[in-house]
């Protein structure tokens, strides 16, 4: 189930023809082990990444999916001659068990999300003198260093420059050639020149005279450029090198129109072929170059000549990008109206059609995308829609396939987590609705999660508060009932960019990034009963200044998402009056914002859904 196949050319000389046979994952694993043996490699690591350390990948770099069949967005393969494992976190445990069946790979459950626990396993399994290799184009500097730190002290040799896949991946996809395009000042609120100047101010403070931007969303933000190279993320493959007063964009020239080239040149950005980026780094003349170890691949990092000192620091654009300007916020609010209209029409349609027995998880995801596409300036969905009915809702990153596609019935809970990419903003929203016959336990769980969403949304906090503190505020009413969830409470969201955006995050990790004014984040607590149902209620919020007094500056959140929160699932006795007031006020606001954009019948339907409890 969910396998990605490669075609292997087999010649039949007797017949005088050739046919294609599918190479199984077991055969791919055997081919990898043969290549390892031939090169004297005892352990091989395949991360889920590309030369830009992206979360979502162009087809060419979907190496884990091709090798093992696992299609989740987070995981690492570690292979020896007698074991092949996928290390991933709790979001993907059920999916991994399913997709890895009969592939030769086994699930290894991560204890800490994102940790290089496979390196610790290799350190214990392999003898001193063994060699562990990986492709430095697919590993961040931070990951490569973590592997070295664990393996080198026990005498294991680490080789970060070996790509074993390319030779055995017949028909490997080429890099995308879709056209890129520039956004104008009216869309972005800041010119490319202004953004470059902001980045250079940080470089000056860090005493760096050069900087390489590898991460695609950072590049897109600085240059006000967008593309179609990665599904759901409006980015374009490229590197941006800032060296002194010179800026060079390394990109496939076919992607840019002549007018775009001229606009970039007017912003003092030169254009060179994508393939020349590594050569440029190898010959760089700068004394100090700033590289982000989390957002730069090891191969590029290792190409920096000894004559240059590497300053390891976060890309300046990563924080600059996270803080939205007034123009971006105004556009985003407009996008939220369009998205709310689509969501309203969608849930009304589901409610009216579910009794027909014709709705499935895949068909409703298609319908939701079609409704979003009716909105002005719609470009794409912002991630694959998670439409989880009953037990599928308990899988936080579930995606329906032809084999798993459940038929909806007028009973139980439906969880829908989805989003849109509009020219004027990025959306991400999760709602749970009742299809009928709801149990008291389901209502109780729903209400407890809703309390968490409301507590996070109502939070008032001093400036300088970190994301893990917002996470704890949101979880408190859920913890009080001895419940919990295994994912983070929230993430940053881009402006017509990646739906997952750093550097801040709302999760238990001690990430030392304050919540800044102007950031857009999700608040999405959940609760999952494996084999039964899942609940998650998600809104996007904008962090803003509330007031200043003798105790300092205090902040709160403006809720941006405009879609009703179902009240027929609420057990009112579990809510305090402040929660009831917030819910009633929110739903009334939703009706007020969306009603002018709906027909009379849909207005009446939404008015009923947003009635005070």
Automatic annotation (TrEMBL):
Q: Report whether Metal-binding shows up as a keyword of the record.
A: yes
Residue span(s) of domain Peptidase M24: 332-541
**What's the domain of life for this entry?**
Bacteria
Record's keyword annotation contains Metal-binding: yes
- The Creatinase N-terminal domain sits at 29-151
Q: Gene Ontology terms, cellular component aspect?
A: cytoplasm
Which InterPro entries does the record match to this protein? Creatin/AminoP/Spt16_N (IPR029149), Creatinase/aminopeptidase-like (IPR036005), Creatinase_N (IPR000587), Pept_M24 (IPR000994), Pept_M24B (IPR033740), Peptidase_M24_C (IPR032416), X-Pro_aminopeptidase_P (IPR050422)
The Swiss-Prot or TrEMBL record describes its family as follows: Belongs to the peptidase M24B family.
State the protein's name: Xaa-Pro aminopeptidase
Please name the source species: Sphingobacterium psychroaquaticum
């Amino acid at each position: 189930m969910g396998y990605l196949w490669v075609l292997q050319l087999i010649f039949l000389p007797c017949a005088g023809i050739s046919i294609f046979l599918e190479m199984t994952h077991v055969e791919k694993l055997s081919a990898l082990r043969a290549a390892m043996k031939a090169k004297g490699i005892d352990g091989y690591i395949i991360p889920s990444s590309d030369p830009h350390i992206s979360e979502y990948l162009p087809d060419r770099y979907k190496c884990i999916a091709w090798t093992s069949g696992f299609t989740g967005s987070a995981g690492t393969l570690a292979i020896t001659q007698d074991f092949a494992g996928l290390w991933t976190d709790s979001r993907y445990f059920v999916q991994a068990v399913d997709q890895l069946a009969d592939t030769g790979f086994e699930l290894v459950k991560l204890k800490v999300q994102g940790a290089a626990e496979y390196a610790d396993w290799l350190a214990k399994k392999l003898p001193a003198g063994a060699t562990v290799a990986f492709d430095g184009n697919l590993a961040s500097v931070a990951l490569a260093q973590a592997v070295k730190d664990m393996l080198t002290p026990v005498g294991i040799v680490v080789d970060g420059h070996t790509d074993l896949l390319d030779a055995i991946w017949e028909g490997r996809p080429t890099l995308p050639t879709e056209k890129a395009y520039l956004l104008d000042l009216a869309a972005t609120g800041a010119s490319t020149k202004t953004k470059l100047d902001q980045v250079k101010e940080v470089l000056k403070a860090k005493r760096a005279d050069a900087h390489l931007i590898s991460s695609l969303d950072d590049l897109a933000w600085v240059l006000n450029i967008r593309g179609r190279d990665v599904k759901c993320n409006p980015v374009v493959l490229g590197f941006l090198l800032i060296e002194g007063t010179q800026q060079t964009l390394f990109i496939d020239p076919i992607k840019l129109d002549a007018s775009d080239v001229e606009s970039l040149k007017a912003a003092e950005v030169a254009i060179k072929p994508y393939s020349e980026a590594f050569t440029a780094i190898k010959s760089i003349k700068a004394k100090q170059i700033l590289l982000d170890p989390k957002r730069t691949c090891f191969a590029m990092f290792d190409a920096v000549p000894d004559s240059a000192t590497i300053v390891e620091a976060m890309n300046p654009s990563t924080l600059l990008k996270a803080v939205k300007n007034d123009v971006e916020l105004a556009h985003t609010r407009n996008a939220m109206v369009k998205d709310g209209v689509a969501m309203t029409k969608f849930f009304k349609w589901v409610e009216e059609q579910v009794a027909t027995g014709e709705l499935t998880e895949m068909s409703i995801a298609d319908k939701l995308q079609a409704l979003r596409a009716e909105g002005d300036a719609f470009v794409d969905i912002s991630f694959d829609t998670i439409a989880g009915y009953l037990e599928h809702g308990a899988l936080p990153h579930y995606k329906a396939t032809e084999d798993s596609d459940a038929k909806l019935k007028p009973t139980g809970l439906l969880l829908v987590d989805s989003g849109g990419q509009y020219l004027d903003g990025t959306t991400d929203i999760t709602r749970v609705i009742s299809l009928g016959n709801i149990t008291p336990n389901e209502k109780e769980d729903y209400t407890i999660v809703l309390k968490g969403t409301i507590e996070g949304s109502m939070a008032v906090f001093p400036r300088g508060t970190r994301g893990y503190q917002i996470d704890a505020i949101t979880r408190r009413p859920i913890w009080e009932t001895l419940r919990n969830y295994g994912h983070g409470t929230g993430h940053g969201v881009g402006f017509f960019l990646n739906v997952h955006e750093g550097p801040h995050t709302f999760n238990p990790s001690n990430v030392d990034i304050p919540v800044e004014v102007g950031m857009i984040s999700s608040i999405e607590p959940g609760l999952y009963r494996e084999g039964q149902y899942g609940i998650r209620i998600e809104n996007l919020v904008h962090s803003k200044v509330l007031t200043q007094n003798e105790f300092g500056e205090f902040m709160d959140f403006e809720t941006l998402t405009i879609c009703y929160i179902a009240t027929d699932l609420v057990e009112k006795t579990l809510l305090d009056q402040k929660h009831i007031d917030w819910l009633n006020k929110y739903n009334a606001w939703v009706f007020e914002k969306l009603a002018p954009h709906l027909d009379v019948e849909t207005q009446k339907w939404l008015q009923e859904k947003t009635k005070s409890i």
